[in-house]
Write a structure and sequence with these properties.
Blueprint (H helix, E strand, L loop, with lengths): L4 E3 L2 E3 L6 E4 L2 E4 L5 E4 L5 E4 L4 E3 L2 E3 L6 E4 L4 E4 L4 E4 L5 E4 L4 E3 L2 E3 L7 E3 L4 E3 L8 E3 L3 E4 L3 E3 L5 E3 L2 H4 L4 E6 L4 E7 L2 E3 L3 E3 H5 L3 E5 L6 E10 L2 E2 L3 E8 L30
Parallel strand pairs: 18-28
Antiparallel strand pairs: 1-2, 3-4, 5-6, 7-8, 9-10, 11-12, 13-14, 15-16, 17-20, 19-25, 21-24, 21-26, 22-23, 22-25, 26-27, 26-28
Length: 266
């Protein structure tokens, strides 16, 4: 009959809720919780307490969406947000942004500290990172020494994550600091905490210079920088002592004789 549609054995002018029109027939939506659909897999309105998400009826919207229960629909969180309560109420940001006043931003802005642990912007950050020279740097004459945790002690490392940068405040007086990466030696005025962890930072003693020396480092995190810390270097011989000359030392009976450099050398 013209103007009517067949629905469950009856002719109707309009398809009932939860049905959609296909040619001259009303067919039931394929989602039992759907109240209105435009075709199979194309729900446009769900029954409470279900919410509409990507043409499907769900009880929970999941990550990157929040539930608008008034409209029975899942809406997208703000850009960069993984979990939110509404369009301006983000709770968790992704790994490339930071939470600031309910939104996710790539940069917290001037004078604001970004906390890498919970991905949040904070108006007051930690104090400048502190670190100590744990021990004397001992190195063989002309040799190299790894700068690792036995020499560098960072205070409250967990508060800063690993986004820390060491800078050379004063160059070594009896050698040089280098970073070894991909088989190549780079002499530079800074290195990262990751470089230290991966055992890429070395001090190389200059055998033409003094055995005793020093250098100074600072530690930076974002705009915060520590006071310079002095590292004392002491180079030692890796060779056993040996006699250079073996000459007769003439001493009269009862007298004393002095062994001087012409007679021995180590």
């Amino acid at each position: 009959m013209e103007g009517y549609f067949l629905q469950q054995g009856a002719c109707v002018e309009h398809c009932l809720p939860a049905f959609y029109r296909e040619s001259e027939t009303c067919k039931r939506c394929d989602d039992d919780n759907c109240l209105q659909c435009d075709g199979p897999g194309k729900c446009v309105r769900c029954q409470a307490p279900f919410l509409l998400l990507d043409s499907q009826c769900v009880l929970s919207c999941g990550k990157r969406y929040y539930g608008d229960h008034g409209g029975q629909i899942c809406l997208a969180c703000p850009e960069g947000c993984l979990e939110c309560d509404n369009s301006t109420g983000c709770r968790v940001c992704n790994s490339t942004t930071f939470l600031q006043e309910g939104l996710c931003v790539a940069d917290c802005g001037r004078g604001v500290y970004h906390d890498p642990r919970n991905r949040q912007c904070k108006s007051s950050g930690p104090l400048a990172p502190g670190f100590n020279a744990k021990s004397l740097l001992l190195v063989g004459i002309g040799g190299l020494k790894l700068l690792d945790g036995s020499l560098l002690e960072v205070e409250n490392l967990e508060s800063y994550g690993e986004d820390l940068l060491f800078r050379v405040a004063a160059l070594p007086t009896n050698g040089r600091l280098v970073v070894l990466a991909e088989g190549k030696e780079r002499e530079q005025d800074h290195f990262s905490w990751e470089d230290v962890k991966e055992e890429r930072v070395f001090f190389i003693h200059d055998k033409m210079k003094s055995r005793n020396g020093q250098f100074f480092l600072t530690l930076s995190y974002q705009e915060f920088t520590s006071e310079p810390v002095m590292f004392t270097v002491r180079a030692f011989s890796t060779q056993p002592p040996y006699v250079l000359k073996n000459e007769v030392l003439v001493v009269s009976k009862g007298d004393a004789g002095t062994i001087t450099s012409p007679f021995s050398q180590d």
